[in-house]
Amino acid sequence: MQYHSIFRPGLFDGQTIVVTGGGSGIGRCTAHELKSLGGRIALVGRTQEKLDQVKEELGDPDTFTFAGDLREEAEVKAAVDAVLKWSGRIDALVNNAGGQFPAPLKDISLNGWNAVIRNNMTATFLMSKEVYLRWMEGNGGAIVNVGADFELGMPGMGHNGAARAGQTNITLTASVEWAHSGVRVNSVIPGFIASSGLDRYPERAHEVLRGVKGKVPLKRHGTESEIAGAIVYLLSPAAAYTTGIALRVDGGLHNNAKSNFYEVPDHDRSKPFNGFPLYRRPRVLE
User: Fold this and answer.
1) Which of 204 and 132 is assigned the larger pLDDT?
2) Average pLDDT of the residues of the chain
3) Contact 243/158 with Cβ under 8 angstroms?
4) Average pLDDT score over residue span 42-67
5) Which of 81, 18, 80 is nearest to 51 (CA)?
6) In a domain, 277, yes or no
7) What is the model's pLDDT at position 209?
8) CA-CA distance, 233 to 186, in Å (whole number)?
């Protein structure tokens, strides 16, 4: 089934695009859209079985997969080396891999803290640095990091807030340091997205995940396709003069979180975009 992208066919013809965390959720959806637009896709993630499933969905035996732990520098180097041996180039990188769990700061162990920091910040740094050094420094390219909104703090997931703040700072810094190489670096900051990742949260978090749309001015969860579309825009020539930004795709949640004097009326005026035929709503929202 063809992905129903709003972007023109052939947009990424001849380009090799690495998508980390490509075995599920936003990464999987993004890989489908990029493939539909002509990109050669390299899926990188932790579980080979999931990567193989997405490769089968894409229907292209040329799709490349690499299973590894992106928190480890040696495995990142091996992943980039393998992609370059397969394709000979890396035109774009989507740093989507990550993971977190809800917990107040007082209950987070050092191991839990380090795991989330390494998942969401260190892996972004290692992948971006290696791709830059091995290809983009001499050839240009575009990097998009998928993060989370940390600016008002992240009560209940302080380790994730710290990691995402660092991840976004890497984006801002790299956008300046690597500009002379023709490399653009941006972030997408999703709000509450109805992705398969929601089903990995513990049951104690389910009511919050279901009820949060009441705080969102657009009064709904976002779709994986709406995040993929933002990523595609930032990778595309339309964003040729855009670097060092953090693009929120959150239905206005960040702006409303600052308001103590206004309550958005209930409505159903915001219609979601979903171009992904294989999308399935997460069970927690049913």
Assistant:
1) 132
2) 95
3) no
4) 97
5) 18
6) no
7) 82
8) 11
Find out whether 74 and 52 touch, Cβ atoms under 8 Å. no
Sign of CA dihedral 1, 222, 227, 160: negative
Amino acid identity for residue 218 in this structure: L
Tell me whether residue 214 is in a domain: no
Q: What is the pTM of this model?
A: 0.95
Domain containing 64 equals 16-196+222-250
Does the residue 272 lie in any domain? no
Task: Return the number of other C-beta atoms located less than 10 Å from residue 151's C-beta.
Answer: 15
The pLDDT tens digits for 219-275 are 999 999 999 999 999 999 999 999 999 999 999 999 998 777 888 999 999 999 999
84 pLDDT band, cuts 50/70/90, is very high
How many domains does one find in the chain? 1
269 in a structural domain: no
Please give the Cα distance from 22 to 36 (Å, whole number): 15
Domain with residue 232: its CATH number is 3.40.50.720
- Distance between CA 262 and CA 82 in Å, rounded? 53
Q: For the chain, how many residues are written?
A: 286
CA separation for the pair 278, 32 (Å, rounded):
10
The predicted pLDDT at position 276 comes to 96
